[in-house]
What we know:
Blueprint: E1 7-9, H1 11-17, H2 24-31, E2 36-39, H3 40-52, H4 56-68, E3 71-72, H5 76-91, H6 98-109, E4 113-115, E5 129-130
Parallel strand pairs: 1-2, 1-4, 2-3, 4-5
Amino acid sequence: MTEALGYLVDTNIISELVRREPDPGVTAWASGVTRLALSVITVDEIWFGLAWRPNARVRTWVEAFFQRHPILDVTAPIARRAGELRGTLAARGSVRHQADMLIAATAQAHQLTLVTRKTKDFEQCGIGLLNPFSDAD
């Protein structure tokens, strides 16, 4: 997908960007992007990590990052679509995590490309996927 449509960033992208020495592929991708959004699921996962392992530098960076980018809610239609995705994939023998399907359904509802290192977790979800890591296949 194109920059005009924007991106939804997964938790592992935020975690990478906040590192002291982030992956060069991720920083190269991020430096060229102006439109990106986050799911409330990602916000939950990041705050869980910071509560579990507090880090003042990371907390400050995250707070500023979250202020600069829109955070998309899980609405009833998104929750429904996530449940449908998870059920359809489970019926095919591919069990997926609820949080991942909520993120996938959010990307789908907003026509955003999901940026993640874990593209396999989101395959067959009907969304665009991008892995900006240098070691991406």
